[in-house]
């Protein structure tokens, strides 16, 4: 097994992640994460060591997306860098669509992904903009 730098595989992973995110599909979201994991932003950081902790971090996301009428999320992959034999860093800008089909600019993140037998999983998320 090698770190995934295949754009089609990474696009598929982030497509599934975006669908789960806007649908509030917490079980699918938690399946996208490795344990333990880390999230880092300018103002806070948190780590999680259980799927329950990952799930709790997404509890408020779905109502927020519904309130903002965001119905779809698409990851625009900006950069892919292999880090090691099983780790890949992926820079993503999220683009959202609202209920009227209008594009809503999102935020930028860097994801550190680990390749596994079942596909990539997120180890670390860093909000970059």
In short:
This is Nuclear transport factor 2 family protein. The chain is α+β, with helices and mostly antiparallel strands.
Report on the structure:
It is a single chain. By secondary structure, this protein is of the alpha+beta class. It has a single domain, classed as Nuclear Transport Factor 2, Chain: A. It has 4 helices and 6 strands; from the N terminus they run ααββααββββ. The protein has helices at 7-23, 26-30, 51-58, 61-67; strands spanning 33-40, 45-48, 70-82, 87-98, 103-116, 119-127. The protein has a 6-stranded mixed β-sheet. Strand 4 and strand 5 form a beta hairpin. It is globular. The mean pLDDT is 90. This is Nuclear transport factor 2 family protein.
**Share of helical residues:** 25-40%
Distance between the termini: 32 Å
Give, in order, the helices and strands: HHEEHHEEEE
* Count of beta strands: 6
Name given to the CATH architecture: Roll
Side-by-side strand order of the widest sheet: 2-1-6-5-4-3
- The total count of helices amounts to 4
Query: What would you call the shape?
Result: globular
Identify low-pLDDT runs.
none
Query: How many strands, which pairing sense, and closed or not: the largest β-sheet?
Result: 6 strands, mixed
> What's the CATH class label?
Alpha Beta
**Number of structural units classed as domains:** 1
Q: Radius of gyration from the CA trace?
A: 14 Å
Structural class: alpha+beta
Average pLDDT reading: 90
> Strand-residue fraction?
over 45%
Protein name: Nuclear transport factor 2 family protein
Organism: Micromonospora costi
